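PROTEIN DESIGN WORKSHEET
SECTION A - STRUCTURE
LENGTH: 97
TOKENS:
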């Protein structure tokens, strides 16, 4: 896909910067719409295929990261169940500053 925003979107996804990736989708959509309006039918098929590939790739990455985070959270919850804490004292946090 020859769109500058597509490369930035891929880089944001690879880096795990999903907030930036979400914001880049607006620009990517605009670029795709502009290209679409100027394209003939065969070019539109190519644009559609490339866009679907990009979004499918991003979806797979997001689902993979989500599953990894979910597994990590489950392990933390499981191990946290065996940590003894005094029943009478609440958790204490110290803040600097």
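SECTION B - SEQUENCE
RESIDUE ASSIGNMENT:
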């Amino acid at each position: 896909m020859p769109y500058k925003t597509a490369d930035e979107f891929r880089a944001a996804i690879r880096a795990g910067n999903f907030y930036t990736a979400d914001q880049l989708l607006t620009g990517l959509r605009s670029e795709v719409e502009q290209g679409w309006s100027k394209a003939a039918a065969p070019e539109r098929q190519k644009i559609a295929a490339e866009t679907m590939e990009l979004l499918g790739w991003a979806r797979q990455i997001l689902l993979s990261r989500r599953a990894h985070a979910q597994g990590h959270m489950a392990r933390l919850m499981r191990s946290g169940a065996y940590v003894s804490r005094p029943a009478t004292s609440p958790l204490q946090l110290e803040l600097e500053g």
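SECTION C - NOTES
The two ends are 49 Å apart (CA to CA).
The chain is about 75% helix and 0% strand.
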